[in-house]
Design goal:
Radius of gyration of chain B: 13 Å
Distance between the termini of chain A: 41 Å
Number of helices of chain A: 0
Oligomer: heterodimer
Strand content of chain A: over 45%
Number of strands of chain B: 11
Number of strands of chain A: 11
Shape of chain B: globular
Helix content of chain B: under 10%
Order of helices and strands of chain B: EEEEEEEEEEE
Chain lengths: 112, 114
């Protein structure tokens, strides 16, 4: 079956670093995405990992370990505008399909 | 401006009254998809289309229909809506066939079925 787990909520302070973890179980794994979603808005793309390792993009980095079924999103120098939900999503090619499976999201609150 | 549009943005309807939510993209994307988002359940894929005339079920297809007659349009049809289909719906598209590419999401349609 398919299962994606991420913490429901996290809090952090402006200027700090926060790591949001995502673990997954899927038989047809072929890449992992992170999306950001502000309240009442559509998700927007942050990062994509298909190979093991770290992808860095400005203040945001994403890491993948396929053998462990594990990813994290690292946010540095937190700003108030980073308060949002962060969605982990896995591309699943099992049973001859091509689907995107989302976790339930992690709501991050950044305090001054 | 490159975008995904959905209409209507808000809809309140009654059980059993057929409705269609339109989705259109102007980026010549091959892959299009519909999701519903519910509190505590996250985004769940309803249907997706890898190209014109090619559609497939996502994780929660029951009670929904789609069609892909043209590359740019991917309407979502609820033949007989029920209250458990009350949700926030997002259409998304990506450049290449398959889910490997970045998904661009529409603004969402908030549907209430009474």
């Amino acid at each position: 079956g398919q299962n994606i787990d991420q913490p429901t909520e996290m809090t952090a302070t402006e200027g700090a670093i926060v790591q949001i973890n995502c673990t997954y179980q899927t038989s047809g794994f072929n890449g992992l995405f992170w999306y950001q979603q502000h309240a009442g808005e559509a998700p927007t793309f942050l990062s994509y990992n298909v190979l093991d390792g770290l992808e860095e993009k400005g203040r945001f980095s994403s890491f993948l370990s396929r053998s462990k079924g594990y990813s994290y999103l690292l946010l540095k120098e937190l700003q108030m505008k980073d308060s949002a939900s962060y969605l982990c999503a896995v591309r699943d090619l099992s049973y001859n399909t091509d689907k995107l499976i989302f976790g339930t999201g992690t709501r991050l609150q950044v305090f001054p | 401006e490159a975008q995904v549009t959905q209409n209507p943005r808000y809809l309140i309807t009654v059980t059993g009254k057929k409705l269609t939510v339109t989705c259109s993209q102007n980026m010549n994307h091959e892959y299009m998809s519909w999701y519903r988002q519910d509190p505590g359940l996250g985004l769940r894929q309803i249907y997706y289309s890898m190209n014109v005339e090619v559609t497939d079920k996502g994780d929660v297809p029951e009670g929904y229909k789609v069609s892909r007659k043209e590359k740019r349009n991917f309407p979502l049809i609820l033949e007989s809506p029920s209250p458990n289909q009350t949700s926030l719906y997002f259409c998304a598209s990506s450049l290449r066939s398959g889910a490997a590419d970045t998904q661009y999401f529409g603004p969402g349609t908030r549907l209430t079925v009474l």
